[in-house]
Amino acid sequence: MSTTRTLIGNSFPLSLVRRRVVITPESVEKLRTRLNAAPPASFWGHASTLPHANRLLEVDLTPRTERPALTLDAASLPELDGRSYTECWLLSPNYAAGFRPAPNAEVPPDQITGWQVLRLNWED
Question: What is the DSSP string of 45-60?
Answer without folding.
Answer: --TTTHHHHHHHHTS-
